[in-house]
Amino acid sequence: MKNWKIGDALKWATSFLLDSGVESARVDSEILLQRILDADKGKVLSNADEVIKDNHAAVYQEMVRKRSEGVPTAYLVGTREFMSLEFVVNSNVLIPRPETEFLVEEALDFLKKKGTNSPAVLDIGTGSGAIGIALAFYYPGTRVWATDISERALEVARINAENIGVSSFLKFCQGDLFSALPGGLKFDCILSNPPYISGEELKNLDETVRDFEPEVALVAPDESISFHKRIINEAPGFMKKGALLGMEMGIGQEAQVKILLQEAGCYNNINMIKDLSGIFRVITAEFN
Questions:
Q1: Do residues 287 and 241 make contact, with C-beta atoms less than 8 angstroms apart?
Q2: Angle CA 74–78–84, to nearest 5
Q3: Taking 70 as the threshold, does the pLDDT of residue 1 lie above it?
Q4: Dihedral sign, CA of 166, 169, 173, 178?
Q5: Which numeric CATH code is attached to 80-287?
Q6: Among 69, 70, 66, which residue's Cα sits nearest to residue 36?
Q7: Could you tell me whether strands 143-148 and 170-174 are parallel, antiparallel, or unpaired per DSSP bridges?
Q8: What share of the chain is helix, strand, coil (3-state, %, to 5)?
């Protein structure tokens, strides 16, 4: 579009996305244009009369159309912020959510209170690497083993570890949960945001999640807490005495997961943490 100004572009994109049913139309329009122009929000909003180059306008229109078709904004721009760090994301990894930050914060508090030097942390189902990389960044000296069944996900996590400057503190292992690890490892923290959506629940998810994010990172086999059950039962063989086990949960799963921890007979100090919406999102327990 010739002589398209920033303000006009934002108005068009917002209207187009609203007509397509995108509730976050204005925010998404701004984020996409910021990426196209390689500018921050303040610069974009304060230069409404600046004319956009024709090639930038064409790319912007295409990105807005893809967003209208349900493609998540994070995949379109290729990044998502998590714990104030920028992570590369693509369709091979789950987009990091603010709710998962509660899990990282609980682990950081635990390690700080114990004063553990060079703690060993396991991040199960690492995806983009968000959990393990954030811990390595904010708790210097942390050594992280990060596992995932998807090699393509691990490729993304390696890029993020390199970009954020902690690659020397992470080891990536491909495989199913603990089977990916070499023998003899013991950890101070085992953390996971495992798949916790049932196949039936998947059908009712927002299309931006259901149709674009990797199903292997979303759906648990058999029952929604099947991965929680496996982690709770297998983790003791990899935990130091007093180590922390922390997992993210889906809505309404807290009672079932707490019972699993109690029945295992080797965990104490079980604690459940609510997210900003008042939903029990994270559960932690210490190994006897």
A1: yes
A2: 70
A3: no
A4: negative
A5: 3.40.50.150
A6: 66
A7: parallel
A8: 45, 20, 35
For residue 268, the cross-strand partners are: 286
Start-end of H helices in the chain = 6-19, 25-37, 41-45, 54-68, 73-77, 98-114, 130-138, 151-164, 199-202, 207-210, 226-234, 254-264
Is 5 strand, coil or helix? strand
Alpha carbon distance 155, 135 (integer Å): 19
Residue given tokens 């912020």 in the structure block? 81
Contacts of 273 (CB under 8 A, 6+ apart): 102, 106, 280, 281, 282, 283, 284
Q: What is the DSSP letter of 52?
A: P
Handedness of CA 150, 153, 158, 161 (dihedral sign): negative
The ranges assigned to domains in the chain are: 6-69, 80-287
Residue 245: helix, strand or coil by DSSP?
strand
Residue found by looking up tokens 């496996």 in the block: 230
Q: How far apart are CA 104 and CA 112, in angstroms?
A: 12
Q: What is the pLDDT of residues 156-215, one digit of tens each?
A: 999 999 999 999 999 999 999 999 998 889 999 999 999 998 877 888 778 788 888 888
pTM of the model: 0.91
- Other CB atoms closer than 10 Å to residue 210's CB: what's the count? 16
Question: Is 200 exposed, middle or buried (CB count within 10 Å of its CB: 0-12, 13-18, 19+)?
Answer: exposed
Q: How far apart are CA 217 and CA 63, in angstroms?
A: 25
Please give the DSSP secondary-structure letter assigned to residue 50: P
CA distance 219 to 120: 28
AA letter at 216 = V
